[in-house]
Design brief:
- The structure holds 2 protein chains of 2 kinds.
- Chain A is mainly α.
- Chain A contains 11 helices and no strands.
- Chain A has one domain: MetI-like fold (Orthogonal Bundle), CATH 1.10.3720.10.
- Helices cover 78% and strands 0% of the residues of chain A.
- The longest helix of chain A is centred in the last third of the chain and has 36 residues.
- Chain B has a single domain, classed as MetI-like (MetI-like fold).
- Chain B is built from 13 helices and no strands.
- Chain B is mainly α.
- The longest helix of chain B is centred in the N-terminal third of the chain and has 38 residues.
- Chain B is globular.
- Classes of the chains: A mainly alpha, B mainly alpha.
- At the A-B interface, helix 1, helix 3, helix 4, helix 5 and helix 6 of A face helix 1, helix 3, helix 4, helix 5 and helix 6 of B.
C-alpha cells in the first residue's frame, strides 16, 4: 500500500476536524456555569437541572418521540415494500415512474414538501371534513411520506448486494413468494430494516420545517421549541439538550452498527 | 385447485407490495403538488381558507374559471423575489463547489486507506449526519457570534484587534451549508473512488505518468458520476434551505426558502407562497431529473 501524500492527509484531517469540533464545543459549553459563551465560569450541571424543569421542552420532547416512533414504524413498512417492489418484482407498468417518485422526497426542498402537504390537508378538510384539526396526526403522515424514501433506498441497496441464490432456491423448492419473503428475505434484511427505522426516527425527531407547516395551534414538536428559543441567540439549556441528544444518538448508532457488524460477520462465516 | 389458489395469493402479494407504497406516495406526495399548483392561480382573501376558489360553479361555463396569473405577475414585478431566487442559486452553487473542494480529498483519502480503516472513517463521516441538523447549525451560532468562541480565540492570539462580525453574514451561511451537507458530497464520491483499481494507478505511475497527470487522466474521469450525484445532493436541498439562512444569515441575506416561509407564516399570503414554490420547483426540475436519472441508472445497472 502506497502512503497517501501528506497534503491529502492534512486536508482529510481538516475535514474531520471541521465535522467534529463544533459538536465537541457544544458539549463542552453545556457544562459552562456562565450564561455567556465567551466566559468560562467553571464546571456546572445547572443547565441540565434547568432543562428538566422546563415543562415546555419536556412536553415537546414527548410529542416528538411519539411522532418519531409511529412514523418510523410505518415508514419502515412502506419503505421495505417499496424497496422490494424496486428490486424483486421485475417489470410492471409505471415502474420507472415509481422509481422516480420514491427518490424525489430525498432531494425535495423541505419548504415545498411542507407547504404542499399543508395545502393538501386543508383541501382534504374542505372536501371530506378530515383532518378536523392539524397536529400530531398530520405531522406523522408528513413524516412517513418523506422518511419512507430513506428506508426504501437503504433496503434497495441491501437487496441489490444480496445473493439471490437463497431466494431462488427457496422458490425452486416450491415456496410461494410471500412465504419466501417471510422465511428467507426478511431475516436477511432485518438489520437494514433496523437501520432504516433508526434513520426514519432521527429524521422525524429532527424535522423543523415540515412539522412547522403541518402542525396546528398548540402542538409544538421539540425542533419547533428549540428553533423559537435559539432564533434570538445562544441559550445554555439548549446546549445541555443538544449534548443529551448527541449522547443518545451516538449510543444508538454504536449499538446498531455492532448488531450489523455481528450479523455481517455471521453471514460471511456461513458463506465460508 | 390448490395451484390456482396459490396463483391468486402470489398475485395479491405482488399487488400489495407495489400498490401500498405507490398509492401512499401518489396521495401524499404527488396530489399535494397539484394542489399547490392550483392555489398559485388563486387570489388571497381574508377568509378561511385565505384564498379564492379556482372554479366558481355558479357562473356559466365560460366564466367558471376564476384563476389568474396575478401572483406570477407580482413575482415578476417585485425585485425582492428575483433577488431571492438568484441569491439562492449563487449561494447553493458556491456551497456545492466548496463541498466538492473539501469533500473530494476526504473521499479520496478514505478510498486509499487500508480496508480495515475505511469502515471506521466512513462511520465518522456518517455519524454527524445522525445527530440533529438543527443543533449542528445552532453550534455555529456559539462559535461565530461577536462574543463567540472563534472571536475570543482570535483576540487571544492577537490576530485581530476587535471582534469580527461573522454571525448573520453570508460567510456564516456558507459555513453552515458546507458543514451540514459535506457528508452528502463525500459518500457518493467515495462509492465511486472505492471501485477505482489502485493497480491501474500504479501501472500508470510506473509508465512515467506524473501524479497530477495520472489523477487528471484516470482518477477524475472515473469519479465523474460521483461528482454529479454528490453535487446534486448538495445543490438541490441547499437551494431551498430555510434553517441555515434563518439562524446564521443576516436580514439582508435573502434566500428563497426563507422568503417562502415568511410569505406563508408572516404575510399569510398563501397563493403567493404557492406561486413562489411553483417557480422554485420549475428551477429545480432539471437538476432533480438529472438526480433521478443517476438513481434509476444505478438501479438498472445493478438489478
Amino acid at each position: 500500500m502506497r502512503k497517501p501524500p501528506a497534503a491529502l492527509f492534512s486536508i482529510a484531517c481538516f475535514g474531520f476536524a471541521f465535522l467534529y469540533i463544533p459538536i465537541f464545543l457544544l458539549i463542552a459549553y453545556s457544562f459552562n456555569d456562565s450564561r455567556l459563551i465567551s466566559i468560562w465560569g467553571g464546571f456546572s450541571t445547572r443547565w441540565y437541572t434547568e432543562l428538566f424543569q422546563n415543562d415546555q421542552i419536556i412536553d415537546a420532547a414527548l410529542l416528538s418521540f411519539q411522532i418519531a416512533a409511529i412514523s418510523a414504524t410505518f415508514a419502515t413498512i412502506f419503505g421495505t415494500l417499496a424497496g422490494l417492489a424496486l428490486t424483486r418484482l421485475g417489470n410492471y407498468p409505471g415502474r420507472l415512474f415509481f422509481t422516480g417518485m420514491i427518490a424525489a422526497p430525498l432531494v425535495m426542498p423541505e419548504v415545498i414538501t411542507g407547504l404542499s402537504l399543508l395545502l393538501f390537508f386543508i383541501s382534504l378538510q374542505e372536501l371530506i371534513g378530515w383532518p378536523g384539526s392539524r397536529g400530531a396526526t398530520t405531522i406523522t403522515i408528513a413524516h412517513i411520506t418523506f422518511s419512507m424514501a430513506y428506508v426504501a433506498v437503504i433496503i434497495q441497496s441491501r437487496m441489490q448486494s444480496l445473493d439471490r441464490s437463497l431466494e431462488e432456491a427457496a422458490m425452486d423448492l416450491g415456496g410461494r413468494p410471500f412465504q419466501v419473503f417471510l422465511d428467507v428475505t426478511l431475516p436477511i434484511i432485518s438489520p437494514a430494516m433496523l437501520s432504516g427505522w433508526l434513520l426514519a426516527f432521527t429524521i422525524s425527531l429532527d424535522d423543523l420545517v415540515i412539522a412547522s407547516f403541518t402542525s396546528g395551534a398548540g402542538s409544538n414538536t421539540l425542533p419547533m421549541v428549540i428553533f423559537s428559543k435559539v432564533k434570538l441567540g445562544v441559550t445554555p439549556d439548549i446546549n445541555a439538550l443538544a449534548t443529551l441528544i448527541i449522547l443518545v444518538v451516538a449510543i444508538g448508532v454504536a449499538v446498531a452498527s455492532l448488531i450489523m457488524f455481528r450479523q455481517n460477520k455471521a453471514l460471511s462465516q456461513q458463506k465460508v | 385447485m390448490a395451484i390456482h389458489q396459490h396463483r391468486i395469493g402470489d398475485l395479491l402479494w405482488r399487488r400489495f407490495v407495489i400498490l401500498l407504497p405507490y398509492s401512499w406516495l401518489l396521495l401524499f406526495f404527488l396530489v399535494p403538488f397539484a394542489i399547490v399548483f392550483k392555489i398559485s392561480f388563486s387570489d388571497p382573501i381574508v377568509a378561511q381558507p385565505p384564498f379564492t376558489a379556482l372554479f366558481d360553479h355558479s357562473q356559466n361555463l365560460l366564466n367558471r374559471f376564476q384563476g389568474s396569473l396575478n401572483n406570477y405577475l407580482f413575482l415578476l414585478e417585485d425585485n425582492l423575489y428575483w433577488i431571492s431566487y438568484l441569491r439562492s442559486i449563487r449561494v447553493a452553487g458556491i456551497s456545492t463547489l466548496l463541498c466538492l473542494l473539501l469533500g473530494y480529498p476526504v473521499a479520496y483519502y478514505i478510498a486509499q486507506s487500508p480496508p480495515t480503516r475505511r469502515n471506521l472513517l466512513l462511520m465518522l463521516i456518517i455519524l454527524p449526519f445522525w445527530t440533529s441538523f438543527l443543533l449542528r447549525v445552532y453550534a455555529w451560532m456559539g462559535i461565530l457570534s461577536t462574543n463567540g468562541i472563534l472571536n475570543s480565540a482570535l483576540l487571544w492570539m492577537g490576530l485581530i484587534e476587535e471582534p469580527l462580525q461573522m454571525l448573520y453574514t453570508d460567510f456564516a451561511v456558507y459555513i453552515g451549508i458546507v458543514y451540514t451537507y459535506l457528508p452528502f458530497m463525500i459518500l457518493p464520491l467515495y462509492a465511486n473512488l472505492e471501485r477505482l483499481d489502485l493497480e491501474i494507478h500504479d501501472a500508470a505511475a510506473d509508465l512515467g505518468g506524473k501524479p497530477l497527470q495520472v489523477f487528471w487522466d484516470i482518477t477524475l474521469p472515473v469519479s465523474v458520476p460521483g461528482i454529479i450525484a454528490g453535487s446534486l445532493l448538495v445543490f438541490i436541498p441547499a437551494m431551498g434551505e430555510f434553517v441555515i439562512p434563518a439562524l446564521l444569515g443576516g436580514l439582508d441575506s435573502l434566500m428563497i426558502g426563507r422568503t417562502l416561509y415568511d410569505e406563508f407564516f408572516v404575510n399569510r399570503d398563501w397563493p403567493l407562497a404557492s406561486a413562489v414554490a411553483t417557480i422554485l420547483l420549475l428551477i429545480l426540475i432539471l437538476p432533480m431529473m438529472l438526480f433521478q436519472r443517476t438513481q434509476v441508472s444505478s438501479t438498472e445497472s445493478n438489478p
